[in-house]
Design a protein that fits this description.
The chain has about 70 residues and is mainly α. It has one domain. About 80% of the residues lie in helices and about 5% in strands. The chain contains two helices and two strands. A two-stranded antiparallel ribbon has the order 1-2. The longest helix has about 30 residues. The radius of gyration is 16 Å and the shape is flat. It starts with a strand and ends with a helix.
Length: about 70
């Protein structure tokens, strides 16, 4: 069943921690560009950017893994 901490598994906590760190980095990179947006809209945009990045990374990793299997 896995280790549970605060209602989340240890793996879920690590994923959330990594996502939070990525959100902080994205906010830092795009901070100047999005400063005119409200705090709520900034958070929505950063969340969308991180989600898109994670999804694209997953797709590219699956493509690369598939190529390795065919070699």
């Amino acid at each position: 069943m896995g280790n549970r901490i605060g209602g989340n598994s240890l793996n879920e906590n690590l994923v959330l921690k990594g996502r939070c760190e990525l959100e902080e980095k994205m906010a830092s990179v795009f901070g100047e560009d999005i400063k005119e947006l409200s705090t709520e809209l900034q958070q929505i945009l950063i969340d969308d950017l991180v989600t898109a990045f994670e999804n694209r990374l997953n797709v590219l990793n699956r493509i690369q893994f598939g190529r390795r299997l065919r070699q």
